[in-house]
Amino acid sequence: MNYIYLITSHRSEGVLPQLYQHKMLRPSTQRYSVTRPLYSEDTFEDEHAKVYRKHKRLRAGKFLNLLFVCYSCTSERAKNTAVSLLPIIGWMKIYSIKDWLLNDIVSGVSTGLVAVLQGLAYSLLASISPWYGLYAAFFPVIMYFFLGTSRHISVGAFPVLSLMVGAVVTRLVPDEGLPANITAFEGLTKDEQRILVSASLTFLVGLFQLGMGLLQVGFIVMYLSDTLISGFTTAAAVHILVSQLKFVLGLTVPGFSGPLSIIYTLKSLFTQITSTNIHDLVTSVVVMVMVLGVKEINDRFKSKLPVPIPIEVIMTVIACGVSYAFNFSENHGVDSPIAPSLQVFQMTAVEAFPIAIVGFAVAFAVAKVYSVKHDYLIDGNQELIAFGASNIFGGAFKSLAASTALSRSAVQESTGGKTQIAGLLSALIVLVVILGIGFLLEPLPKSVLGAVVIVNLKGMLMQVVTVPYLWKKDRPDCIVWVGTCLAAIFLGLDLGLAVGLGLELLTVVFRISIKSLFDFFRIQNGLQATCSMPIEESEDESNMEDLDKPTDYSDLPIQVNWSADLPANIRVPPVNIHSLILDFSAVSFLDISALKGLKAALKEFIRVSVDVYIVGCDPYIIEKLRNCKFFDDEIKTSIFFLTIHDAMLFIHESHPPKTVSEEVNKTVQA
Q1: What is the 3-state secondary structure (H, E, C) of 591-609?
Q2: Are 608 and 558 in contact (CB under 8 A)?
Q3: SS3 assignment, position 279
Q4: Which of 287-296, 432-441, 633-642 has the lowest mean pLDDT?
Q5: What mean pLDDT comes out for the span 174-187?
Q6: Which residues lie below 8 Å from residue 637, measured CB to CB, with a gap of 6+?
Q7: What is the pLDDT of residues 432-488, one digit of tens each?
């Protein structure tokens, strides 16, 4: 048997319009003929009575034996458990010092310099001292080095998480007025109170993530679609931009939290706009122009540059040099561990859970990109355990909540990083800064850090350009994006995430309802009416969007031609199938993310010479595929068949069974 048939439901085989039958196929010599009696439900049950199977009871002895077999500890199970909980064991066994170590060193140093600056800058979003942002680039990295499954992400502060932490910090310890009634606050300064809130919240976030990992609920990230995450992070970027304006303008603006906090912040900024500090404004503008310009050079000439120009670090050194000439501060060391406050746990549990979810979702999405590119597997549940342990460890040392930043991970990967040894080296760079030369960064103007934060928001803010594309291709997805973004901007990030999840649920109900209505009217009006349904003409080929363009596999490490002769030292397992059937009769709808995933999967099967056929697909879905320009020179409408039997007949005709003599000849030649 050299074909595969996948069943996704027990529904009866659907009917597709003649419009979608096998275009570009040669006329078939076989016929689809079925002859059977006419059945009502009663007559069918009479002739084919349901068989009830009697299940045997499990005796106590067999039950105990089964428990012993399932839970007994063997050397093999102990080894597998150790490798699962400590992924470092797996990749350390294949680590090539000759080929990888130099790359990891270069990547670690480059990433460490970026992590220092981002740690300082992102701590401003959390309304705490910049030093504790550096801790997020050290303590969590150590734990992730042993427990994480991704070899390329850079663990540390993430602007969205820092902003969400900052909202909790300013709620419990506001800029103006009395702090919350917490016993642990007694005898502490306002800065120390904020550090306690941030550290306790980070610890609680780690507990949530560790608990979800141990309970194997990593699948929860599937409910956060790409559209929802895009809208949410765009709203977070708007919040971050507004929060940094006070540093750029040199104004004193109290922190606001809760719904409409962004409106109150903007109101406070505009009422003080005439008091803008010109020196801070000019400094920020110069830094932003220089950093944006050099980043553009890095992007344009990345193939020619051995490593990206660390312009943020250069500008920071210049700014520190100027400031240091006028201000010298004391040395800073690593603080001792502290116990988290249980009262803070009780008052921040509602905010901690969405922070845990968002931090994991972003990190897992970035890790998945690099795992596909470099051809290795990541484990969602183990990632939850890794980030949970990292945040618990970091929270004990007053660190910010850790996730990953796409820009920092891109530096680690693009500079040649192969494993988390690069991440460990970057943590050592951060440690050197904290213990050795940290005092040089003390006089660094906050306007410089604010400018760096704003420049790094470019990628998240530019996601807004996807709105017109979503409106044309998938309006329910567009509504989720816009609704999530607006809710997160005006109601706050925590409530905005809840609104986004609610909208996503409503769109699922809406899509299913629309499909049901579509099927109903198709049945009522007959097959001919469905075939005459107008099809919108797609726009010019030069205006193709992301989904329309052919998938680029040039960045993947290996492109295997299974039919070609491979080098003598390479052995590739043969593909034992030539055809794959996907039953889409249970598929109600496909959103943009699903379309992209399906297209990428089909391209992969084409690369390994496996023909994929889709059966029972609803005309509503095929219409959407056409409108989104899903089909191209490789993926054609001819892969769709009305029923499983049609596809099977075509496969048998395309790949006729070999005769006995042919099999014998093949065996002799082998």
Answers
A1: CHHHHHHHHHHHHHHHHCC
A2: no
A3: helix
A4: 432-441
A5: 87
A6: 20, 23, 24, 622, 631
A7: 888 877 666 766 778 888 888 888 888 888 889 989 988 888 888 899 999 999 999
Q: Which two tokens stand for residue 518?
A: 């579509």
Residue 447's CB is within 10 A of a number of other CB atoms, namely: 24
Using CA of residue 299, residue 304, residue 306, residue 310, what is the dihedral sign?
negative
Nearest to 269 by CA among 283, 285, 287, 255: 255
Q: Give the Cα separation of 208 and 348 in Å (integer).
A: 12
Cα atoms in the Cβ-side hemisphere of radius 13 Å centred on 619: 24
Separation CA 256–CA 242 (nearest Å): 12
| Tokens 């000759």 sit on residue | 98
Residue holding tokens 């052919």? 550
Alpha-carbon distances of 489 from 233, 240, 282, rounded to whole Å: 10, 10, 28
Q: Are strands 402-404 and 155-157 parallel, antiparallel or unpaired?
A: antiparallel
Tokens, residue 540? 């010019």
DSSP state of 3: E
Helix H segments across 126-257? 131-135, 139-147, 159-172, 190-214, 226-249
For 4, the enclosing helix (H) or strand (E) is strand 3-6
This prediction's pTM: 0.70
Write the single-letter amino acid at 614.
Answer: I
| Closest by Cα among 296, 290, 277 to 316 | 290
User: Which helix H or strand E contains 108, and what residues bound it?
Assistant: helix 97-125
* pLDDT greater at residue 638 or residue 68: 638
Q: How confident is the model at residue 531, as a pLDDT?
A: 43
How far is residue 368's CA from residue 149's CA, in Å, rounded to a whole number? 10
Question: What is the distance between the alpha carbons of residues 284 and 241, in angstroms, rounded to a whole number?
Answer: 13
User: Which residue in 117, 100, 200 sits closest to 154, CA to CA?
Assistant: 117
Greatest Cα pair distance in the chain:
97
Is 202 in contact with 181 (CB distance < 8 Å)? Answer: no
Q: Tell me phi and psi for residue 615, to 5 degrees.
A: -125, 155
Q: What amino acid occupies position 152?
A: H
Alpha carbon separation from 323 to 319, 433, 449, 526 (Å, rounded): 6, 17, 13, 79
Q: How far apart are the first and last CA of the chain?
A: 20
**b/e code 146-172 from CB counts within 10 Å (16+ = b):** bbbbbbbbbbbbbbbbbbbbbbbbbbb
Beta strands in 502-607 (DSSP E): 579-583
